[in-house]
Amino acid sequence: MTETFQRGPMSNTRSRADEVFVAERPWGQFQQFVTNEVVTVKIITVEPGHRLSLQKHGHRDEMWQVLDVPIDIEVNDEKWVAQPGERVWVPQGATHRMGNSGTEPGRLLEIAFGEFDEADIERLHDDYAR
An example of a Gene Ontology BP annotation on this entry (predicted)? Predict the structure, then answer.
């Protein structure tokens, strides 16, 4: 089984990265990230040498799970390289970004808890001048 870590600052809301349900089966296992809640789920692919804007949201928390290759993570003042299988909790209002300093595209599963609206993104720094 892949070991997972929850990193990033804590907020007044619970970290759902700690609440992932894992069920063992004869054929292997499954991880259940959320049950019967309104969420938005995305898979984000970050190309080598690129990163998303440094941003924050006022209306949602996010949980990321790194899928393929190590991904550069920044949440508030903490920076690290998250490994495949690692979970990251991004509380509402936290500044955050992800990037890929590797040589292969990297994917993350993102689950957004709360009101999802792309207009809720406040970009603090953006390599693409958006």
Answer: GDP-mannose biosynthetic process
β-partners of residue 63 are: 89, 111
Q: What is the C-alpha separation between 127 and 11, in angstroms, rounded?
A: 28
DSSP label at residue 92 = T
Tokens of 94: 């936290």
Residue 102's closest CA among 123, 84, 115, 119? 84
What is the rounded CA–CA span in Å between residue 41 and residue 69? 20
Per-residue pLDDT tens for 11-35? 445 677 777 888 999 999 998 888 8
Contact between residue 105 and residue 39 where contact means Cβ atoms under 8 Å apart: no
pLDDT tens column, 60-115: 999 999 999 999 999 999 999 999 999 999 999 999 999 999 999 999 999 999 88
